[in-house]
C-alpha cells in the first residue's frame, strides 16, 4: 500500500508540482477501482486508482471523450498514466441523484436523465475503435453469473439436469428478445448512483467505461427499474412510454417499431439485467466481501418474479423460481 501511495504522489506531482496534497478515500463501487478525492488548498480533483491494466484506463479515457463529444457531461480527464492505472479527473462533487430523489420529484429528474440517452445512443465508436457488441455470447455470459454464483454459492442449490435444461432454454429465450430490438450505444449501468446533480441542476454521467452497443431499451430499464430504488409501476410505465415516444419523434427507432414491441423489449431486457444482478450481488458478497449489496437483493428478485409471471413463455421458469428459489432465499436471508 505504501508503494502504491508513493506512486500516486509522484503521479500527482506531475500535475500540480510543489503542492501539499491531502487524500481522502471514497466509497468504492462494485468494481475493482478505487477513488480518492485529492485536495490542495481550494482546489480538488478525483483520482481513479485501478489495477495497472493499461487497456482499461485507455478505454475509460476514450469513452469519456466520445461521450463528451456527443454532448454528455462527464468528468474531464486532467492527467493519465494508463500503464500505472491512474487517471486524474475533474471532481464533480458528491451529489448523487439517488440521494435527492423523492416521490414528488422523481418524474422531473428521470425525464432529465432519460433525455440524456439519445446522446449516449449515438456513441458506437471511440478513438480506440468500435464499442464491444452486447451480442448473444455477452448476454448469455452475464446470465451465467446467476447460475454460477447466486444458485450454488449464495443459495447452495444444486442444479440437476432438468433445472439446467430449464435455465438454458430460459436464457436463450431472453437472449432472443434482447437481441431482437434495435441496437444503439449503451451505458450498461445507467441508474441513480451513476448520475450526479451539478450546481446548475443538470446531470452528469459517471461509471461509463463499460459502454457497449446493445438493446435500445437497456439503459432506460436500468434507470426506471433501478436495483437500488423502487418506484410505483404507474410512474415507471408513464416514463417508459414517454421515452419510447421521444425516440420515435427523434426518428431513433424504425418507424414500424411499435409501442407494444418496445414495452415487451423493456420487460425482457430488464429481466436479463436483474437475473444477472442476482449473481453479481452474490459474487460481490462471497468473493469480494462487499456485504452492502445483499440488502438490495429482495428488490431485484421482486423484479424477476413480477416480470417472469407476466409472460406465458416464462411460466416454467416463474414456477421454479417461486417454488424453489424463493423459499431457499428466505432461509439463507433469515
Domains counted in the coordinates: how many? 2
Structural class: alpha+beta
CATH class of the largest domain: Alpha Beta
Fraction of residues in β-strands: 5-15%
Across the major sheet, the strand order is: 1-2-3-5-4
| N-C termini distance | 37 Å
* Low-confidence spans: none
Q: Under the CATH scheme, which architecture of the largest domain would be assigned? A: Alpha-Beta Complex
Stated plainly, the CATH topology of the largest domain is called Aminoglycoside 3'-phosphotransferase, Chain: A, domain 2
> What is the CA-atom radius of gyration, in angstroms?
21 Å
Based on CA inertia axes, which overall geometry fits?
Answer: globular
Order of helices and strands: HEEEHEEHHEEHHEEEEHHHHH
Mean pLDDT: 94
Query: Helical proportion?
Result: 40-55%
* Main sheet attributes: strand count, strand direction, barrel closure: 5 strands, antiparallel
The CATH superfamily of the largest domain appears as Aminoglycoside phosphotransferase (APH), C-terminal lobe
Instruction: Tell me the number of strands.
Output: 11
Number of helices: 11
Short descriptors:
globular; single chain; 2 domains; Phosphorylase Kinase, domain 1; alpha+beta; five-stranded antiparallel β-sheet; 11 strands; 334 residues
Protein model, in words:
With 334 residues, this protein is an alpha+beta fold. It folds into two domains: 2-90, Phosphorylase Kinase, domain 1 (2-Layer Sandwich); 97-333, Aminoglycoside 3'-phosphotransferase, Chain: A, domain 2. Helix content is 50%, strand content 14%. A five-stranded antiparallel β-sheet has the order 1-2-3-5-4, with helices on both faces. Strands 6-7 form a two-stranded antiparallel ribbon. A two-stranded antiparallel ribbon has the order 8-11. β4 (77-81) and β5 (86-90) form a beta hairpin. α6 crosses α9. The longest helix has 28 residues, at 259-286.
Amino acid at each position: 500500500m505504501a508503494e502504491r501511495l508513493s506512486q500516486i504522489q509522484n503521479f500527482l506531482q506531475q500535475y500540480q508540482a510543489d503542492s501539499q496534497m491531502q487524500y481522502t478515500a471514497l466509497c468504492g463501487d462494485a468494481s475493482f477501482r478505487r477513488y480518492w478525492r485529492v485536495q490542495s488548498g481550494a482546489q480538488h480533483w478525483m483520482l481513479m486508482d485501478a489495477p495497472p491494466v493499461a487497456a482499461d484506463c485507455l478505454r475509460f479515457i476514450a469513452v469519456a471523450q466520445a461521450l463528451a463529444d456527443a454532448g454528455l457531461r462527464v468528468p474531464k480527464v486532467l492527467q493519465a498514466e494508463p500503464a500505472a492505472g491512474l487517471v486524474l479527473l475533474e471532481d464533480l462533487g458528491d451529489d448523487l441523484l439517488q440521494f435527492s430523489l423523492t416521490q414528488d420529484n422523481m418524474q422531473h429528474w428521470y425525464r432529465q436523465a432519460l433525455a440524456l440517452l439519445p446522446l449516449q445512443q449515438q456513441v458506437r465508436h471511440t478513438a480506440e475503435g468500435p464499442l464491444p457488441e452486447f451480442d448473444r455470447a455477452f448476454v448469455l455470459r452475464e446470465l451465467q453469473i446467476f447460475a454460477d454464483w447466486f444458485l450454488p454459492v449464495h443459495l447452495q442449490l444444486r442444479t440437476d439436469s432438468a433445472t439446467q435444461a430449464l435455465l438454458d432454454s430460459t436464457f436463450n429465450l431472453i437472449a432472443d428478445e434482447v437481441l431482437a430490438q434495435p441496437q444503439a450505444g449503451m451505458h450498461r449501468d445507467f441508474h441513480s448512483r451513476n448520475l450526479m446533480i451539478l450546481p446548475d441542476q443538470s446531470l452528469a454521467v459517471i461509471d461509463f467505461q463499460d459502454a457497449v452497443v446493445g438493446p435500445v431499451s437497456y439503459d432506460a430499464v436500468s434507470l426506471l427499474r433501478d436495483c437500488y430504488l423502487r418506484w410505483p409501476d404507474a410512474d415507471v410505465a408513464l416514463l417508459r412510454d414517454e421515452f419510447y415516444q421521444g425516440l420515435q419523434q427523434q426518428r431513433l427507432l424504425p418507424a414500424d417499431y411499435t409501442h407494444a414491441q418496445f414495452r415487451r423489449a423493456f420487460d425482457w431486457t430488464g429481466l436479463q439485467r436483474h437475473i444477472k444482478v442476482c449473481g453479481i450481488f452474490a459474487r460481490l458478497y462471497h468473493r469480494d466481501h462487499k456485504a452492502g449489496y445483499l440488502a438490495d437483493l429482495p428488490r431485484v428478485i421482486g423484479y424477476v418474479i413480477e416480470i417472469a409471471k407476466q409472460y406465458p413463455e416464462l411460466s416454467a421458469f416463474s414456477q421454479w423460481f417461486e417454488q424453489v428459489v424463493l423459499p431457499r432465499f428466505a432461509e439463507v436471508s433469515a
